[in-house]
Design goal:
This protein is an alpha/beta fold and 366 residues long. The chain folds into two domains: 174 residues, Rossmann fold; 176 residues, Rossmann fold (3-Layer(aba) Sandwich), CATH 3.40.50. The chain is built from 15 helices and 13 strands. A seven-stranded parallel beta sheet has the order 3-2-1-4-5-6-7, sandwiched between helices. α1 crosses α15 and α7 crosses α13. The longest helix is centred in the N-terminal third of the chain and has 22 residues. The mean pLDDT is 89.
Length: 366
């Protein structure tokens, strides 16, 4: 006879789905220490490595995303979806979850469609200001839908929505500015610009920096620039002769807590997790949304902050000419930086994972 509660968490594909999912799992473990948690992901996607690294068991489904441009390619995709649903029937019978949680991504679609057929309680977590296709499809089966932005009743039933924000990595709060400056060898009397484009980097952000690199060097601003693994060789070819200790170019930033702590201004894509981190830390940010995402949802994320004067938005197509000049002008305007910091901090949801976990526990059948 099952003694502990069982929670199934499905979804993934990107860090923006995985970080919130792991944060929710961590909080459930705090609030229900004897519980068992099982993740469901898509085979060959990053969750198959990231989730076990966080200490949780995961099962991969042979599911993949649909092609919106080549519809004839979706026949094998549909076949894999059906195979995944069949596999999920066995998983649910064996694991017997009390509540199923979906964070988006196509693995969540297969897992929770079967969970709905089993009449299991379902909670969805939507990170973006524009709802993903999977969560929109599953919303009719969900008991609760936890969101990060207002006006999400455009996509979901209003009576199911709870504004909780997005769970973020709490260890980002550990760093101090002094520790960050010391770690990276930067001075306290010059501003620091942090440039990130996600774990794989962002081509247009990198091109924008390269296009104005001489202007940036002459400005006296200290720069920590994460170029990403995809663009490492391309960028380092141009920057290897810099020989400037106040201009650090790296493929990956391991100590993001220290990088954020010392930064006076951040340049970033507008993924939901990145924005939530910026809100939690109260960091002035210039957002350059990726145009290569479903339904242009990063622009929706960015504009939700811009409307509250909590961030600066630059379109990807304009970044090459405008990004660095605007960043330097902003760094020279202390009052504007302070206002952006104050406004974005007002949007923070520091207890997001706790609020979501509380809603999960409410769904557990007595």
């Amino acid at each position: 006879m099952k003694k502990s509660r069982h929670y199934l968490i499905s979804g993934g594909g990107t860090g923006g789905h995985i970080f919130p999912a792991v944060s929710i799992a961590n909080q459930l473990k705090i609030m229900d220490p004897e519980c068992e948690i099982l993740f469901i992901g898509a085979k060959s996607r990053m969750e198959m490595e990231r989730v076990p690294a966080a200490g949780y068991r995961i099962i991969g489904l042979p599911v993949r995303g649909i092609s919106r441009k080549k519809l004839w390619c979706n026949v094998p995709v549909l076949f894999d979806f059906m195979r995944s649903m069949f596999k999920m029937r066995g998983i649910l019978r064996q694991f017997k979850p009390d509540v199923c949680i979906g964070v988006g991504g196509f693995a969540s679609g297969a897992a929770l469609r079967v969970a709905a057929a089993f009449h299991l309680p379902i909670l969805l977590q939507e990170q973006n200001g524009f709802a993903g296709m999977t969560n929109k499809m599953l919303s009719k089966y969900a008991s609760k839908i936890c969101v990060a932005y207002e006006h999400m009743d455009r996509y979901f039933p209003k009576d199911k929505i709870i504004i909780t924000g997005n769970p973020v990595r709490q260890n980002l709060l550990n760093g101090s500015k002094a520790e960050g400056l010391k770690f990276y060898g930067f001075s306290n009397d010059k501003p620091v610009l942090l440039i990130v484009g996600g774990s794989n980097g962002a081509r247009q952000i990198n091109k924008s920096v390269l296009n104005k690199i001489e202007v940036l060097k002459a400005s006296g601003v200290q720069v920590l620039w994460q170029v990403g693994t995809l663009y490492s060789q391309e960028v380092h070819k141009f920057t290897e002769q810099l020989e400037d200790s106040s201009f650090i170019v790296t493929d990956f930033i391991a100590r993001m807590d220290l990088a954020y702590a010392m930064a006076d201004l951040v340049v970033s894509r507008a993924g939901a997790s990145s924005i939530s981190e910026m809100c939690l830390l109260g960091k002035p940010v210039i957002l350059v949304p990726s145009p290569n995402v479903t339904e242009d949802h990063q622009t929706h994320n960015a504009m939700a902050l811009v409307e509250k004067d909590a961030a600066i938005h630059i379109a990807d197509r304009d970044a090459e000419e405008e990004l660095i000049p605007q960043a330097l002008a902003l760094l020279a305007n202390k009052e504007r930086l302070s206002l952006l910091s104050k406004n974005i901090l007002l949007l923070a949801q520091p207890d997001s994972a706790k609020h979501i976990a509380q809603e999960v526990l409410k769904l557990v059948k007595a």
